[in-house]
Structures are given as C-alpha cells and as structure tokens.
Amino acid sequence: xxxxxVLPGYFAILRGRSxxxxxxxxxxxxxxxxAAPQEELWKVHDGAMxxxxxxxxxxxxxxxxxxxxxxxxxxLKELIAMRxxxxxxxxxxxxxxxxxxxxxxxxxxxxxxxxSSEFLHIGEEPELVPSHTIFFSGCxxxxxxxxxxxxxxxxxxxISVMPAELSECIVRRHLEGARNVNLVGGDPTPxxxxxxxxxxxxxxxxxxxxxxxxxxxxxxxxxxxGIVDVYLGDFKYGNDKCASRCSAADRYWGTxxxxxxxxxxxxxxxxxxxxxxxxxxxxxxxxxxxASEHMPDVRFxxxxxxxxxxxxxxxxxLGRSLSREEISGSxxxxxxxxxSNLANTKYSLDS
Length: 351
Ligand code: SF4
Prior knowledge:
The chain has helices at 8-14, 21-27, 38-58, 73-84, 149-152, 163-175, 192-200, 218-224, 240-247, 252-266, 280-294, 324-337, and strands at residues 114-121, 131-136, 159-160, 181-184, 208-212, 230-234, 268-274, 299-303, 340-341.
C-alpha cells in the first residue's frame, strides 16, 4: 500500500509540512466578549470556524506564527466547554448534570479530570506508534465486556489532572519520540474541557488523536472540529438494540454514523471494529456495509482481541472468545465489501 495514501494530513504534520489543527486554532485571533451569553459565543465560534478552514487550506508549513494566549479560537472553545459543564451535554446522553456543583451524570466524572496512566504506547495501529497515550478515567458507555473496566467504571482512578503538568508531560513525550497525543480512556469525551485547557498550554506541532467510542454530542463535535487531526473511532454495534443491551447506550446508530460523517468531513479517520462473538450478522456486517457505502476510503481496522472481561459472563454469547469461523467470517465480510484492513501494515517516516 502506498504510504502517502494513508492519513496524508497526519503524515504531513509528522514531517513538519503542515501545522496541527490545535496549533492553528491557538493562533487564530477571535474577538469575543467572555461575558456574552452562550448563544452569542456559539455564533462567534461558528463564524470563526470558516476562517479556520481557510487557514487550514492556506497555512504555510513553516509559518506557524505567534500563539494568541487570550482570545484565540482555542480559548473560545475552552470557554464554551467550561460553560457547558453546568448542564453537561458533552456526550449524547445529555445528562444535564451541573458538574461545576459536584453533580455527576452517567459517566460519574465531575469537573476535575483524572487519568490513570500515560506512556508511549507501541500497541496501537502501526502508523500511530509510538503514541503518547493518556488514559482518562470514567466513560460514557457501560460495556459489559470492558477490558479497561477498572478505570472506565472508576472516574476518580489515578491522579487528578494538573493542566500545566500534563502539558509539560506532552512536550516531554514528544521529545522522547511520540508521534502524536492519543486521548483515550475510558473515553475522552467527559474530559473535553480539561483537554482543551491542556492543549492551550502546549505549543508543539504534533497530531491530536481522539481515541473514542464516538458517542459525542453534536456540540462536542463542533468543538473538536479544529482540534482533532485523527479520529481513532470505535464502531461497535450495527444496531440500537445491541448497543443498548451491551453498552447501555441509546440512539447509537444515528449518533455514531452522524459523528463519523462529521469526522470524515472535518479530519481523518482510522475506524476500528472489535468483532464480538455472536455479533457478525447483527453488528459486523452492517458496520462494514455502511462504511463501504459512506466512506470507502476509510482506514478500517478489524480487531480480534475480544476476551470475556468485567460482566461479560452474564451474557451467553459474550462469555467466550471468538471462534476461528468468526475470525475468518469477519475477514470475509471486509473483503466482500472491499474495505482495507490495516492490521498487518507497517509504516515508517524514514524516507
Ligand atoms: S459526559 Fe455524557 S455521561 Fe458524562 S455527564 Fe456529560 S452528558 Fe452525562
């Protein structure tokens, strides 16, 4: 496979030929009144995003300019996210919890973000590694088979985020050879306000990877536009019934397909699908079919590492690993619809 055809924007940032999105947003000056009503801030934001897109198309690789520390597009995004905390709608659950007043919604995360670990991950997709992966605590889903259940079900696991310290850590990992910043959990969505704050303190040219279940609200998708360079997105279920039963997530199909389409328009995508035992017909096939119809160029990673964890044993079909027939059957589905599977492809920046 031609290396340059894979995530070309991502590789342009790695080679220093393009600025990453958050860096452009941190330099794009926006006039706004921080005391204005939220609706006014959204209007200013949406107008500024047009300027952002122009800058994205025309920004010379070596003209990263000077960072605007007080009234940039990135500052405005952080302000809007902070305001949203008092009636949280970061994800599609839209709990409306006042997280500034110590209320918590379904994810259990209050205003203070925690992360359980951060390190240079070499187990992600080949073009991403080594990846500076930050595991935020808490999750918007309740997957009965979660392999990270110790942090996804405990929003206070690990240490609380000190934004200045985490931004220094990101710079240090960059100097150690990280190819990107990989925001994951649990799920990064409940931590949107913290992540924007931390990025506001960074100034290195590195791609931002949003490693997520893709259950963000429409408002969160708008704030991520102009920040995220690559969506490393899970597409888990082919229908609402399986999503509700296995992850307690309502309105799944419409939400996830909407968000993948936005992500495809705004940035680049690496789509993941963890094959679940007994879910080839109801989930794997509809997902692969949809991806082949709506984004046939998507980088698709079929994953076979399912093992029964957490409370999976309570669900008859999920209490076992995949059979050989299920592995070969899911590969056959991907071939049938013509998607590329990157699981065994290697990438390097050496030439
Ligand atoms: S992030 Fe989602 S689950 Fe958590 S409080 Fe906000 S709307 Fe609820």
